[in-house]
Design goal:
The protein has 142 residues and is of the alpha+beta class. It has one domain (2-141): Roll (Nuclear Transport Factor 2, Chain: A). 42% of the residues lie in helices and 37% in strands. A six-stranded mixed beta sheet has the order 2-1-6-5-4-3, with helices on one face. The protein starts with a helix and ends with a strand. The model has no long low-confidence stretch (mean pLDDT 90).
């Protein structure tokens, strides 16, 4: 009887954990969708809402590491100065995996369709739940 109760307890705890992870993954997908829509509306400020507003934010791209939210915003504004540079963004999310409770990584592809020439690449994001909201704390894009 003790073994049965232990087995049921383990199954219940595993189910709760799986449900929580599924909810986290959906929330992360929603965050990235909000970012995509903001980008496609030429709304860099809305796009940046997905990032952790901290000097500890890290963005690693082809020009090296950019530290901090303000510097990352300035980097985006310099690299994408007009609506034509923004184009239309699509994501392919290849994997969303838990690192530990309250943090995940996302690996995927971006596809930017523009009249001035398309841009495609890959990314890896690290997200952390901060004050009840998912935020990107590190971004590697190429």
């Amino acid at each position: 009887m003790k073994n049965l109760i232990l087995l049921i307890s383990i199954v219940c705890l595993n189910s709760v954990s799986t449900l929580a992870q599924n909810a986290d993954k959906e929330a992360i997908k929603n965050l990235l969708e909000v970012q995509r829509q903001a980008w496609n509306n030429y709304d860099i400020d809305g796009f940046m809402e997905g990032y952790w507003k901290s000097e500890d934010l890290k963005f690693y791209g082809s020009n090296g590491v950019t530290y901090g939210w303000d510097n990352t915003l300035a980097r985006y504004k310099k690299a994408y100065p007009t609506k034509e540079h923004f184009g239309t963004l699509e994501f392919v999310l290849n994997e969303i995996s838990i690192i530990d409770e309250g943090s995940y990584y996302v690996m995927g592809e971006y596809h930017l369709k523009r009249t001035m020439g398309n841009a495609d690449g890959i990314f890896m994001l690290i997200l952390k739940k901060i004050k009840g909201e998912w935020k990107i704390i590190a971004d590697t894009s190429s």
